[in-house]
Design a protein that fits this description.
2% strand, two-stranded antiparallel ribbon, 19 helices, 64% helix
Length: 567
């Protein structure tokens, strides 16, 4: 590890922490339904409601959930149809034909669920129209959906004696027009200035300096790139994703992209504190996220800069021993940071191949996703995932001190804990259950490029990425088969909506409760003690759930590597 590497990390941590408070202020104000937020925009907002026939009045949790599910199912259908018909639709200069049915279904579910898993190469599979009117639109909608659910849960915590938790259509519109669109336009212009292309022209035929013929893929990249980062929908325009120089041309663009991935998720912690009337509560959540994030980065960076046992056998020396598969333009520190950022969030953007990371680094990247992406997470999903763990931590603390647990004036009772645990157990069920099929069925084993623990890690990573709505890939696994396309679609759909519905149920039950005044027996939830309890709860629950599977994969591979053996 180098001083420059830690300075890069320190700059990123300083900038994202600096943005937490102002972005939290903006998000909290956006979540408020007062007309004074932005007078002109509010008029446009209500005109849009009238045009679409949407009713922006307050909804209870059942109405909110029904609106959300119906809207997103329609999004899946529309994106599927666009892919199947792209051969006869305009803005297809490469004359690409229809996307194969199971791949089209996988892609549709992937981007609607904010996962961005890609079993295809973007530049050779989907047209400009599908990229813009299909995938990019769903990047906006899926992020706005997650933000709306987070707002709904926070309202449920902050409100008392009331049935409603907000309105899905209002949250969707406000998140899109007041937040995601302005940031995307500004960010796209900055990316263009750094060298990211933005054009509808056909691919460029080029001749290299040695006379070889090459086709350079271009397209409307800048406008797609920024929303993929802000939204947590990290599917790349190019197959190489952010390792492609047209997506990430400079060190400055790499830093900007990493900041964009964390911006909304980190800011929502501060918005939570403002909405419940105690900013310290938001800083506790941010501190818990920061501890987990810094710990993960330290492990990854240390492993990627240490000598590989195989290199030592070959008597290889130097500081670039582990650079295979990494971002060679910017070094190990930047690759380690970007990998930790993208797995700690729900963004699947990558600038290096996670398959090439050391075994324990791969363990950390998987663990980041397996913990329900609570380390910042995606827009909205990170906050409501963390709040589910907060409810569990408060409940455990209540059991230890022998009294009914409370959180911000709400009694946490059996119904809330059951729904919280249901939401927290959905993701492990699919992360652990589907890989069992993936390594048992003979026809699926042909998709593996590696045997032994590393091959198992590739399958485990794929389903962890899908069920946790992350979308990054370990690589080395061919998932463009009927089994993987459909099973990953099931994991992504369940990991999104079977978590969201219990979260909204918790929001509804909390909103109906009477406020419980704090007493001498109330556990303070705004200090270091509770932050420590929260981190311990997350680590213990995650460790007990996933440790056996991780032992079969990255831990076994690490031990074999140390012994000088191979599979």
């Amino acid at each position: 590890m180098s001083t420059i590497g830690w300075l890069q990390f320190g700059l990123f941590a300083f900038l994202i922490t600096t943005f937490v408070s102002p972005s939290g202020w903006y998000l909290a104000r956006m979540a408020d339904s007062r007309e004074s937020f932005w007078t002109t925009a509010t008029r446009v907002e209500h005109a849009l409601y009238r045009l679409c026939g949407a009713d922006p009045s307050e909804q209870n949790w059942v109405q909110y959930a029904a609106s959300l599910v119906c809207f997103n199912v329609c999004g899946i259908v529309l994106l599927y149809v666009l892919q199947r018909l792209q051969g006869v639709l305009p803005f297809n200069p490469q004359r690409l034909g229809p996307v194969e049915p199971t791949l089209a279904m996988n892609t549709a579910v992937s981007f609607v669920t904010n996962t961005s898993w890609q079993s295809y190469a973007g530049e050779t599979t989907v047209s400009y129209l599908v990229q813009m009117a299909g995938i990019t639109v769903q990047s906006f909608m899926s992020a706005a959906t997650g933000i709306g659910v987070a707002f709904a849960l926070v309202r449920g915590i902050a409100r008392h004696n009331i049935e409603t938790i907000g309105n899905f259509w209002a949250d969707l519109v406000r998140s899109t027009f007041y937040l995601l669109l302005p940031l995307s336009v500004a960010g796209a212009l900055v990316l263009q200035a750094t060298g990211v292309p933005q054009t509808l022209s056909a691919y460029v035929d080029a001749t290299s300096v040695d006379g070889a013929h090459q086709v350079l893929a271009i397209g409307p990249v800048a406008s797609q790139e920024m929303i993929k980062l802000l939204s947590g929908d990290g599917g790349g325009f190019f197959n190489a994703n952010s390792a492609h120089p047209f997506e990430d041309p400079t060190a400055a663009s790499g830093l900007l992209e990493a900041l964009a991935i964390f911006l909304v998720g980190a800011g929502l912690t501060n918005a939570f504190g403002r909405m419940v009337g105690d900013r310290r509560q938001g800083w506790v959540l941010y501190a818990a996220m920061a501890v987990l994030f810094v710990s993960g980065f330290a492990v990854v960076y240390a492993n990627e800069t240490s000598m590989n046992a195989a290199s030592a056998v070959l008597h290889q020396t130097g500081t670039l021993a582990n650079m295979e598969g990494k971002e060679v333009r910017f070094g190990t520190a930047q690759s380690s940071l970007f990998a930790t950022v993208t797995t700690a969030s729900s963004d699947g953007a990558v600038d290096s191949m996670h398959d090439s990371f050391m075994p324990l680094s791969g363990l950390v990247l998987m663990a980041n996703m397996m913990l329900d992406e609570v380390i910042v997470g995606g827009p909205g999903s990170g906050l409501f995932g963390m709040l589910l763990f907060v409810l569990v931590a408060v409940f455990l603390a209540g059991l230890m001190i022998g009294r009914t647990p409370e959180y911000l004036g709400n009694k946490i009772e059996g119904s809330e804990v059951k729904m919280a645990m249901l939401a927290l157990l959905v993701v492990p069920f699919f992360i652990l259950g589907l890989p069992a099929l993936g390594v048992l069925l003979p026809q699926t084993l042909t998709s593996l490029n590696n045997a032994g623990p590393h091959g198992f890690s590739e399958v485990l990573y794929a389903y962890a990425s899908g069920a946790a709505t992350n979308g990054s890939a370990f690589a080395g696994l061919n998932t463009n088969t009927d089994f993987y396309n459909l099973s990953l679609a099931v994991a992504m759909f369940a990991g999104r909506f079977l978590v969201i519905i219990p979260v909204l149920c918790v929001a509804g039950t909390l909103a109906r409760k009477r406020r419980v005044p704090a007493s001498a027996g109330t556990l303070p939830t705004h200090g270091p003690l509770f932050a420590t309890l929260l981190v311990a709860t997350i680590v213990i629950v995650g460790g007990l759930t996933f440790f056996p599977a991780l032992v079969l994969g990255p831990v076994a591979e690490h031990l074999v590597m140390l012994a000088g053996g191979t599979f």
